[in-house]
Amino acid sequence: MLAGLLVLGPMPLAAAAPAPYTVQPGDTLWSIARDLRPDPSVRIQAMAQALYARNPDAFDGGPEGLKAGATLQPPAPDELARTEPAPIPGAGNYYTVRASDTLWSVAERLRPDPRIPTREMVQRLFEHNPHAFDGDVHTLRAGAVLQVPDMPTAGSAAAPVAVADASSAPASDAAPDTPAPSRDTPNGDAEDEAQRAFVFGEESAEDADADTQTGAAAWDLRVEDARIELGVLGTSGRPVDHVQHGRGVVSARRDLNEAWELRLGARADIQAQQGGDYPSTTRARADYDENFLRYRGDRTRVTVGTQRILWGRVDEIPPTDRLSTKDLTRFGLDPYGERRRANPAIRAEFFQGPWHADLVFLPLFRPAELPDRDSLWHPVDRNRGRLLGLPQDPALAPVIQQAALDDDVSGNGGAGVRLGRSGRGADFAVTVQRARHSQPYYRFDTDTRQAILAGQPPGDPTLEAVHPRTWVVGGDTAFATGAWTWRAEAAWLSDVPVTRADDLRQTTVEGVDWVVGAEGFPGDGDFRMTTQLAGQHLLNAGDMLDARESYFLTGELESPFADYNWRARLRYSIGLNRRDVYLNPELAWIAREPMEFYIGLHWLDGAEGTAGGFYRDNRMLVTGWRGQF
Amino acid sequence: MMNRTAMFLGAGLLLAVATLPAAALAEESAARELARAVHERPDGDDAVTRGIMTLTGGGRRERVRESYEYRLDGEEPGASRNLIRFTSPRNIADTAILVHNHPGGDVDQWLYLPAIQRERRISSENRGGSFVQSELYFEDLEDREPHKDHHRILGEDAYEGTPVTVLESVPVDSGNSVYSKRVSWIHEETLLPLRIDLYEGGEEPAKRLEVQRIEEIQGYWTVTRSSMTDLASGRTTILEVEDVTYNSGLPDELFTLRGLSDPSLARPYRP
């Protein structure tokens, strides 16, 4: 293409027979036609057709088959059809006067070259556009259309508007493939050319390049999550009448230099409940969030500090997410990401092409975060004498009511490795972990258990929370077929805590968890849905109090409506082999970003021994506000 | 891919030769050539763009989204990678989308959701979904190859006083587009469409893209202000380019899942 320009450049635009042109590799008929046409009044399309008609031998089959190396004889200029009427000198160089304009401001904006004094531009605009003035130069009429006159010092007649920033205009030879309009002005000095622009229609005043870019702030401060929620419980057996919840998560991030990053984060939570037959409680608690020092190398990343590391790929219940710390303060009311707390970790990651190796060590074990002892969401319900995950037993109820809780969380939290690949067609990962269950499993201590088995009231009933270590071997994958994205994930666990039916002794058995799901946009619009089928199995389990198999259907339906001012969403989890239902419809007003107001329902129901059954009286209507700043 | 395209074009041409008079053939060729020229318009090997998207009109509350878009063209024709990261408002800040366009038309697409710190593969075939609640569909972000449409030149026209060529493009396979027809007002000088009417089945266009400003930046013609209007509701998305840098030598690593999940990686390349 450059060659074309060179051929054309020195050529006088007279009616002399144009020089033949040799097709270069990379040329298209279009690019040649654009470069060879004698002047801009000849449409490129007309030139292309004329070239094709005149040089049939240069083409293989049709206009697409332009042969490299062929010689094109351009048509004589007078053979070419020209656009009518006479070409407008510089497309788009008209300006419609706005009410807020002054002649000076217009002149300043329209002068094609910043070296032209605005005063001179004012004069020329006035002389060129008598129709736009009521008598004298001070009476520019709003709505009038100004024609921008050609300026002798402007680089190009085709440049309708020059942006007043000549310093940023690169030399035109820096752009090899560009249709350099300087070809229209053989005398034009390309290097002095101002940056060119076309403006179509009115340009609004606020476009006047207000550079809002803030300087590189040292600290990036954010409110990651702020919320207030009020809830009302409705069932006759409700434990409390009202609940309130507030949360604030703040972070500060800063790059120390090219390789090092520091991040600090903290959170505060407040939870309260009143009325009903459970004690009224209010608990405010501060906690650390992510606080880490991170090193970034070419192919490595090392992060040391408190972090949230969420392995796995499926939604809500990823089987290979075993190194994170669960947040059980609100059961499952919050979406997945919010149900995890940061824990102390050392993480090393290696990147090579599509591969990603992730090594994590948890030097200190952090168990799941639990709500207040009397909260309606605590897994040990001492008010009614029930234990989450086990069927209600009138014989055990008084013991659970009086039991003290003992949680031993000393030691490290385990370690794991995850090797993933993300590339064309599919993503997958495999993982091996030696992890600890962050969610507590409650067992009776030996004395209590023996007293119960002997049929005597235990003296000092105690429930011990255990967090058994387990091997985790698992994998996950994702791929898209048509409009649907499929995700699957499974893990084998060497040790899942269970309670034996005969002697109430706690032990562990092997287990397998799996999830298969799909995500799509039925209707090819904004309505999004995810559906997952999940299974949890205990292997080789004898007579246990725990459920040996559970199957669930979980997912989410979501759609904005009313001009994106509102969003409707339903999260659900439905037990398939046992009744265990959680439904969370929510209506949110999302017009006022970055916050939203919402109203929702948490509806739970289920058979004995299921989570839905355990929390069935906690059904509540909630309304709240949340945002990020 | 090239072979397949060539075969496709060859077959199309044979059919045309058999059925159309010579004048019609020339016209169709010119239209296809124009579409190809627009598609192959020089736009650098890579680009970083800071953009502001304003969602307005139709009585809704105005919303503003700020983002960086990184583009890297691949070695093979049809191969390219795009990374779009939002920086504002806060509820979508750091959210990013990574697109790998492969020669031949298959596309890998991932979304990064900061709340769960995860890269999520998503299907690229949700063409009709709104892109961050704007009037842009996901399809509007696609780099649609010209061989996917039949093209026809409807004539010459003027757009805001500028002569343009009007090109009609109708999908060869109606299943691969939300649009039944696109009519483009093409500015031949810059090979940029200055207006595109987008039809979704009806006689009247459903949406309209209009260009208000183009600038030559580093020698490349760049649309720096445009708007997409939903003609039925009057809702408009205004797209403004605040900064753009071409040919800064973006590394492949930016366009991996690591680059998707880690905003710091691309930060040094911001204009």
Summarize the SSE layout with pairings.
The complex is a heterodimer of chains A (629) and B (271).
Chain A: H1 2-8, E1 21-22, H2 29-36, H3 44-54, E2 71-72, E3 94-96, H4 103-110, H5 118-128, E4 145-147, E5 161-162, E6 196-199, E7 220-233, E8 242-255, E9 260-274, E10 281-288, E11 291-296, E12 300-307, E13 325-326, E14 340-341, E15 343-352, E16 355-362, E17 380-381, E18 386-387, H6 397-402, E19 404-407, E20 414-422, E21 426-436, E22 441-444, H7 446-453, E23 462-466, E24 469-481, E25 484-499, E26 506-520, E27 528-539, E28 549-561, E29 566-575, E30 580-589, E31 595-606, H8 611-614, E32 620-627
Parallel strand pairs in A: 19-23
Antiparallel strand pairs in A: 1-2, 3-4, 5-6, 7-8, 7-32, 8-9, 9-10, 9-11, 11-12, 12-15, 13-14, 15-16, 16-20, 17-18, 20-21, 21-24, 22-23, 24-25, 25-26, 26-27, 27-28, 28-29, 29-30, 30-31, 31-32
Helix pairs in contact in A: 2-3, 4-5
Chain B: H1 2-19, H2 22-39, E1 46-56, E2 63-73, E3 80-88, E4 96-101, E5 107-113, E6 118-121, E7 149-159, E8 162-171, E9 181-187, E10 192-199, E11 207-217, E12 220-230, E13 236-246, H3 257-261
Antiparallel strand pairs in B: 1-2, 1-13, 2-3, 3-4, 4-5, 5-6, 7-8, 8-9, 9-10, 10-11, 11-12, 12-13
Biggest sheet descriptor of chain A: 18 strands, antiparallel, barrel
Mean pLDDT of chain B: 86
How much of the sequence lies in strands of chain B comes to: 35-45%
SS field, number of helical segments of chain B? 3
CATH topology grouping of the largest domain in chain A: Porin
Whole-number count of domains of chain A? 3
